[in-house]
Amino acid sequence: MKRKKKTNNPKKVIAIAFFMILVWIFAFYLYVTYNKIEINNSNYEASKVLSTPSTQTVETVEADSKKVADVIEETTKKVVGISKLKNAGNSILSKSTESELGLGTGMIITENGYILSNEHVTGEKYSKCYVTLENGNTYDGTVVWSDSDLDLSITKINAKNLEYVTLGDSSQIRVGETVYAIGNPIGFEFRRTVTSGIISAKNRTIKIEETDKSSYMTDLIQTDATINPGNSGGPLIYPNGEVLGINTVKISSAEGIGFAVPINIIKPIIESFKSIEEFEEATIGIYAYDKEVIPYLNGGSNANFNKGIYVAQITKKGPADGSELKEGDIITSIDNVTLNTMNDLRQYIYTKKPKDEVILKVTRGKINKEIKLTLGKK
């Protein structure tokens, strides 16, 4: 029996033809599109262009570094060496110690020769010291103001037309910001050494143990910029050259822990010397502590407060003696200026004069009081 020959289905033929046409159209489209693409060296160059931002970043960093170096170079011209002895020696191999020589650092704060430093470098008020400028000239200096609690001093030399440092705003500092310390560590060979670091912490309180007494330094700036004994009194600066602190102490038992006194505390005194070449210091006549110091004190756990200044002692025959202010009171504000640290109180009092009146807001247990006081002369 013969098999019937299979005939092609017209519908299938049409479908196949239509599919082939679509494939041809798509292939033609790809061909035309591909021919419009220029394959040349510019494509390779384009990939190199992508690296331009990083190249610019490197150039920017280099420019910024150069700018910082320029700023530091200018700032070091305003940093001075201070010694209690006129001939402090010129070698780190000298048998005399740093404390014997009184080697330290200071910074010029006015064009007519006022120098800011530490009290432990220059000595107390009316002490004599020797100040050496960047150009090598040495001047006799007289301490015209000092404060042992702050470990700060201002010394006057007979000089004119000096370049002086720019003061920044220490109330705006932030942990992690880059800072530079400038000073004269060890001896002559290493004068005006610059070290870098960051602000490690702020509002630090440390206890200073001396031969016959203990004291507390509060509201300090902590930095990991290397600070050696001879750096004392030198500036802690921002990359733009503004001074935010005065280097003062380091922790001898640890590396990378140094402290500086915030510059804002001394600004009113500097302005007074700039304008009238003197400063008459007013006082309330109290010994007080902020909350950061209380844990160090015997019985301090009984003084629980979150803000304000704890009155530990009232000076006999001082302005507060015989007033309504009592030991154990918490002063929360002065003339409506909120107080959280002792430096807040000092900074405000430095703007006043003896015989000025101030109003204290005081908390005594659950009682709130306002006390009016006339400031005395310190």
Secondary-structure blueprint of this entry?
Blueprint: H1 10-36, H2 41-49, H3 52-76, E1 79-83, H4 98-101, E2 104-108, E3 114-117, H5 119-122, E4 128-132, E5 138-147, E6 152-157, E7 178-183, E8 193-209, E9 214-223, E10 235-237, E11 243-250, E12 258-262, H6 267-276, E13 282-283, E14 286-290, E15 309-314, E16 330-334, E17 337-338, H7 342-349, E18 357-364, E19 367-374, E20 376-377
Antiparallel strand pairs: 1-2, 1-4, 2-3, 3-6, 4-5, 5-6, 7-8, 7-10, 8-9, 9-12, 10-11, 11-12, 13-20, 14-15, 15-16, 16-17, 16-18, 18-19
Explain what you see:
There is one protein chain. The chain is an alpha+beta fold and 378 residues long. It folds into three domains: 46-73; 74-274, Thrombin, subunit H; 280-377, Pdz3 Domain, CATH 2.30.42.10. The protein contains seven helices and 20 strands. It has helices at residues 10-36, 41-49, 52-76, 98-101, 119-122, 267-276, 342-349, and strands at residues 79-83, 104-108, 114-117, 128-132, 138-147, 152-157, 178-183, 193-209, 214-223, 235-237, 243-250, 258-262, 282-283, 286-290, 309-314, 330-334, 337-338, 357-364, 367-374, 376-377. The strands form four sheets. The chain has a six-stranded antiparallel beta barrel. It has a six-stranded antiparallel barrel with strand order 7-8-9-12-11-10. Strands 14, 15, 16, 17, 18 and 19 form a six-stranded antiparallel β-sheet that branches. The chain is extended. The N and C termini lie far apart (137 Å). Residues 1-6, 37-56 and 88-100 have low confidence and may be disordered.
